Amino acid sequence: MSNESPYSIHLNTLFPPLELIDVQTLVEACTDQWYNQTLTQVNNSVVRLGIMQGEFHWHKHDDDDEFFYVIEGQFIIDLEGRTVELGPRQGFTVPKGVLHKTRAPIRSVILMVENAGIKPTGD
């Protein structure tokens, strides 16, 4: 088995306060299939950009909620016993401790808001 992750996850903060964030430029430059980049920090939370197609693994965050907002594409959140499908301009919060798996059947662009200390791959 390979030790390489199929996900490109970047926890560094790209933009400090008072700097313009051009999401479209980042989207156009992205060549990864599953990309996650911290854009900025707001108080104790971060705003992350996700550009993805495919599936993420089942995971949960014991101490942190996660908010997903779709800019373009289709984003699906599988929960135990329930599936939520999001389209553009729709959002959904997964509460802490809830097992979930995310997937994007087509290339999708999302924003995530979560605690700055969250481990994106789960606890």
What is the CATH superfamily label?
Answer: Jelly Rolls
- Spans of at least 5 consecutive residues whose pLDDT stays below 50 are none
Global mean pLDDT: 92
In one word, what is the shape? globular
Distance between the termini: 21 Å
Specify the structural class. Answer: mainly beta
- Please, how many domains? 1
Q: What is the succession of H and E elements? A: EHEEEEEEE
Topology at a glance:
Blueprint: E1 8-10, H1 23-29, E2 34-42, E3 45-55, E4 66-72, E5 75-79, E6 82-86, E7 91-94, E8 100-115
Parallel strand pairs: 1-2
Antiparallel strand pairs: 2-3, 3-8, 4-7, 4-8, 5-6, 5-8
Descriptive report:
- It is a single chain.
- By secondary structure, the protein is mainly β.
- The chain has a single domain, classed as Jelly Rolls.
- 6% of the residues lie in helices and 49% in strands.
- The chain is built from 1 helix and 8 strands, in the order βαβββββββ.
- Strands 1, 2, 3, 4, 5, 6, 7 and 8 form an 8-stranded mixed sheet that branches.
- A hairpin with a 2-residue loop joins strand 2 and strand 3 (45-55).
- It starts with 7 loop residues before the first strand and ends in an 8-residue tail after the last strand.
- The relative contact order is 0.26.
- The model has no long low-confidence stretch (mean pLDDT 92).
